[in-house]
Predict the structure.
Amino acid sequence: MYSRVTLLEIDTLRVDVEDVLHEFETRILPGVREMPGYEGVAVMVTPEGKGMVVSFWETEEDVEASATLAASAVEEFVTVYRAPPGREHYRVAYAEMPR
């Protein structure tokens, strides 16, 4: 399993964190779920707007193939960030997910 980790910071002076999460869930996530190799996502946020999105993919090729959609998602949300998000890819060496 492989993952894409996106670190971001939402500008909470201009937008509400819950509104951004709702937009992600309704506008971005449906397309991500249809991508080949998609295995899930975890989104973590703080009240101050710091966040991390970890998406899980079956193969390294699936992570790379989803990069175009990830880039367009960042573009769609460009007005909510304090600074451009950072992204990296990882091989998942161990995962124990909540049920």
